[in-house]
Amino acid sequence: MKVALLGCGVVGSQVVRLLQEQADDLAARVGAPLELAGVAVRRLGRKRDSDVDPALLTTDAESLVTREDVDIVVEVIGGIEPARSLILSAISAGKSIVTANKALLAEDGATVHGSAKKHGGDLYYEASVAGAIPLLRPLRESMAGDRVHRVLGIVNGTTNYILDKMDSTGASFSDALEEAQALGYAEADPTADVEGFDAAAKAAILAGLAFHTRVTAADVHREGITEITATDVSSAKAMGYVIKLLAICARSDDGRSVGVRVHPAMIPRTHPLAGVREAYNAVFVEAESAGQLMFYGKGAGGAPTASAVLGDIVAVARNRIAGTHGPQESTYADLVVHPMGETVTRYHVSLDVADKPGVLATVAEMFAKHDVSIQIVRQEGRGDDAQLVLVTHRASDAALSATIAGLRELDIVRDVTSVMRVEGEESS
Amino acid sequence: MKVALLGCGVVGSQVVRLLQEQADDLAARVGAPLELAGVAVRRLGRKRDSDVDPALLTTDAESLVTREDVDIVVEVIGGIEPARSLILSAISAGKSIVTANKALLAEDGATVHGSAKKHGGDLYYEASVAGAIPLLRPLRESMAGDRVHRVLGIVNGTTNYILDKMDSTGASFSDALEEAQALGYAEADPTADVEGFDAAAKAAILAGLAFHTRVTAADVHREGITEITATDVSSAKAMGYVIKLLAICARSDDGRSVGVRVHPAMIPRTHPLAGVREAYNAVFVEAESAGQLMFYGKGAGGAPTASAVLGDIVAVARNRIAGTHGPQESTYADLVVHPMGETVTRYHVSLDVADKPGVLATVAEMFAKHDVSIQIVRQEGRGDDAQLVLVTHRASDAALSATIAGLRELDIVRDVTSVMRVEGEESS
């Protein structure tokens, strides 16, 4: 079995290392040796982490992926192009594909999956979501006999590291980000992580697998964590919550549509996701028969991601030897992705209000007007002002937004200091 | 695709229900409808939870499993016989097998797997360990490109429920057991659970998958939880530990042998397994490249177990349609299972000693004589007596046993009140 590798960076060099170091074990597990046929890189001269034979390096990726002796093409370049064109060429040439490319699958999965279907080839992508955690295979195969209701995931290690630091040390967002950057958990330009783009791509892939439907990155409602303050974190803490950036994929109550969203949310400290510290990832799945499941592990890094890539290489190699292929993309359910306004959840709202009689009544009336029912109110005087903290029962995002807009119009409301969704409770 | 079901109890009746309720989804995922061909039961007249068509019931299981129109045989009877004979007949007749039978696979996996290999048929058993948690497929497939070092699992919900109650309420073992029985978490005869037999069978299956070798239930060192006292639990708590019944499968330091054991152990409260409450299961995996992974969910119950069975049914049905089969048992590594004495871990030892000068020196000398190094000592006076609590560095079980035997011989040691292994710390 000959393997062509596209990209030899952090993940690619680990794939090379593992193919070499574990050659005997891999051969025994596949039933044939896995041989590295070539490694496509952008520049030949660059110093690399791995001991890849320089004779295997090439800058001509297009020729490599269609070379007759190549069986499996592993793509760890990332991004849309040239990854898409190379993968499509490889599929057309009858190769099996292993990729870690979340952006491509989330933005244009239709083209890539469609081509794999047409040519009857394998397209495996375990490493694209939550790195080392075996997650896509369980969703695609182990849960194929169950009905998934909801997926709640911490799928971005950078933002979890930042929020965890803010929670454990009281740091501000910018201080925590700086620390994450110093430790290599965050990029110099952290936008893709802190604005939720990375998590949104993963949410699209998870939702598609969980609900057997097509979801693209554009379908995902996305909010980042840059507005989270140390005060938000400490008031969440005071109420027994922790703030996490969650990727949430949920079936609507009638089962006819799905909502897919990435945003910071409060979850109870007793929830299994609350204990996910530092840069770890975890995905919580609620299914009709299985009940609550959680998958936990490292979501990024060279070796962890390479572990997932290698698992896929073994699987597609076995399939090739058996003359078959694994399950193809399943989108038969063809569900509508509903707009964010139709999402139903609970909300935690903080208001600065004038401290005088009748304020609570006026505020409560605004919630009632939009059919948003209040579960908890806490009022704290602060001289002339008072702080009102409210937690609602389940309400639609549209109703909540209308409520907030109405509150901002009220004279007695000085400021809406924070609005955050509350997830992971029985009643939510 | 015609499915024959052996057994229609707690799990079987849920399998019937799901096959009926989710027929359309299952057909779309498989690519062909799944039809129930027959259900073998012991007695025809019994009242059942499911709406199984009485015309499908039969007491002649042997004829059902070899019936020409049957494609897939699902065994949820449990126990060694008649399950083994029926499965072997079905395999010989070319059927694909889905089973939840941990006892059979742990005691005589060689015969069953051997027959499946010989006839080229599928034998899937996701439900046999940790119920609904997708665990065997990830170990067998997702991690096929990695090297697993260690598996630490809470794989028995009954004992986890009991230990969790003891931890959270201070209850005694017998009171917690009674509560578990009242709630249906424990059987009237709880031996299989509380003595660790159930966990040992699962440990054997996990070790075989994780290390690509054959392990049987007889290879597993087994200790139950009946001797755990409320005092053990509270002293563990005082030191930041929680006591769990763990199934531990570990490669030796030189990689040439494996140890497989089930026993109560202290783990730090910061360990991800420490937060596994009530009757939930979780399995923690340490692999060379992937790092630390955890899988969490419901380990038992009709619907959760049926979810895992259905996932396997979908997989073997897809394989049948594609004219192929999934990965077969992988035992190429053929590792030795080392005896418990060679297991290396840390220990927590409590002693009642005479409260006089020189006692600690004498005790410490006994540990040193057997090359067991002490990490922490805590001494508390109690009038004439004192309590000594010691935590060791890593030592072999044989060395620790010799130390304990030596301590018992000392006049100044009134009693060895507790010896417990400490797991889940970086240094262990």
What would your notes on this structure say?
- With 428 residues, the first copy, chain A, is an alpha/beta fold.
- Chain A folds into three domains: 2-131 and 302-322, NAD(P)-binding Rossmann-like Domain (Rossmann fold); 136-298, 2-Layer Sandwich (Dihydrodipicolinate Reductase, domain 2), CATH 3.30.360; 340-422, Alpha-Beta Plaits (2-Layer Sandwich), CATH 3.30.70.260.
- Helices cover 37% and strands 26% of the residues of chain A.
- In chain A, the strands form two sheets. In chain A, strands 7, 8, 9, 10, 11, 12, 13, 14, 15, 16, 17 and 18 form a twelve-stranded mixed beta sheet that branches. A six-stranded parallel beta sheet of chain A has the order 3-2-1-4-5-6, with helices on both faces.
- In chain A, helix 5 links the parallel strand 5 and strand 6.
- The termini of chain A are far apart.
- At the A-B interface, helix 2, helix 6, strand 12 and helix 12 of A face helix 2, helix 6, strand 12 and helix 12 of B.
Low-confidence stretches of chain A: none
Rg of chain A, Å, rounded: 24 Å
Number of helical segments of chain A? 14
- The quaternary organization reads as homodimer
Shape of chain A: elongated
